[in-house]
Specification:
Length: 232
Amino acid sequence: MAGKLTLVPTPIGNLDDITLRALKTLAGCDAILCEDTRHSGKLLSHHEVSNKLIPFHQHNEHKVTDSLVGKMEEGQHFALISDAGMPGISDPGYLLLRACIEKNVVVEVLPGPTAVITAIVGSGLPCEKYVYLGFPPQKKGRQTFWKSLHEETRTMVMYESPHRINKALKEASETFGPERHACVARELTKLYETYHRGTLAELVAYGDDKGYKGEIVLLIEGSAAFEKRNKE
Ligand code: SAM
């Protein structure tokens, strides 16, 4: 029997956001590779799935990848999950997936929740062309990051921590001007899910006044939509 790696997306907040195929895979594989066994244990027990959990995270992925690929070459089927959303999207996954491809181990990716796509659609900003930028650099390279986006025509989507979102909105306003439309999408699929939509000036003012809490996706209109709006 050939082994396999299956990347399984898990909920980004609401525990019911998981597909039947994901649950069948998690129950039927030989073991589940996960970032945090306690966190993933809660998801599994919510869905009455039990299986062996093996820690796989940014601090050990370099060390354990070869041995995991070896086990898959011997016929083991592993599922890879992260704490939330799609593994590999600002989460561990890429390294293991590359190693499997190099060794001709079958890789499958199940479709499912990810904060990027949920936020793009919910933001109301143009979603037929967008660019996903991960997290902006925290310190070194941050200025270059914003500068490199100055001419971006597509909707820009990034993850940002609640501690840096005000700073990011101010930097965005300096880069694109205060009238550019944007959205702070927070706590998606959770009790306090909110889409703050407006100009960068309005979003900066709200941040200074009330602040943004929780998990956040920042979306900024690209220059194409901005120019089109201003011509109309
Ligand atoms: N793999 C995940 C995915 O597919 O979306 C992303 C993992 S990354 C380590 C975590 C970041 O994703 C958070 O800091 C936040 O920016 C974003 N995020 C995750 N869940 C979210 C949610 N429910 N609402 C808003 N943003 C979320």
